[in-house]
Structure formats: structure tokens, C-alpha cells
Amino acid sequence: MLSSLFAEANSLAGKVVVVTGASAGVGRAVAKRFAAGGAAVALIARDADALADTEAEIEALAGKNLAIPADMADADAVFAVAERIENELGPIELWVN
């Protein structure tokens, strides 16, 4: 599954990808891979400090991104985050949770 997701990463150049749990582990790695493939990546996680680290790593890859600290267990927050992402980056092509 991840291999097909990573193969698809390059086909998402210029598109908007949302990655939750982007502050660490698999979420962080996936976000970096999509950014390296040219996607505009919206980074979402609860830990604002760790999220800022991921954001800095992606900026170093010359990736366009938007970091938003949020708890995806809060339905209202999910809708607010999605609206903000679409307003700032454009239509969401892929959401990785």
C-alpha cells in the first residue's frame, strides 16, 4: 500500500495533499515524500512544536506547505482545517489520515 502511495506522490506535483499525524513517524515521512514529489502539503498534528519541525524540514525541500495544529478527533476542527486548507492552498486532492 505504501509503495503505491509513494509511486503516486510524483503524480501529485502541484496538487494539494493533507497529511494528519504529520509531526512524527509515518505521517512525517509521508508528508516529506509528497513534498519532495512537488505536492503542496497541509500538515496536521496536535503537537505544534513537532509540527513546526516538520514544516521546517519540508521548507528545506523547497516544498510548499501549511502547518495547522489541530485534533482530528474534533469534528468541528476537521471542517475548519479543510476549509482553511482549500482557502490557502486550493482544492484537496488527497487526504492521508
Task: Tell me the strand order in the biggest sheet.
Answer: 3-2-1-4
Q: Which secondary-structure class do the elements indicate?
A: alpha/beta
What's the count of strands?
Answer: 4
How many angstroms separate the termini?
14 Å
Number of helices: 4
The portion of residues forming beta strands comes to 15-25%
* Main sheet makeup: 4 strands, parallel
Radius of gyration over alpha carbons? 12 Å
**Percent of residues in helices:** 40-55%
Unreliably modeled segments: none
Quick check: average pLDDT? Answer: 90
H/E topology pattern: HEHEHEHE
Global geometry? globular
Distinctive features:
4 helices; alpha/beta; 4-stranded parallel beta sheet; 97 residues; globular
Fold and architecture overview:
Helix 2 (25-36) links the parallel strand 1 and strand 2 (40-45). The mean pLDDT is 90. The protein is α/β, with parallel strands linked by helices and 97 residues long. The chain has 4 helices and 4 strands; from the N terminus they run H-E-H-E-H-E-H-E. The two termini are 14 Å apart.
Describe how the helices and strands are arranged:
Blueprint: H1 2-9, E1 16-20, H2 25-36, E2 40-45, H3 48-60, E3 65-69, H4 75-88, E4 92-96
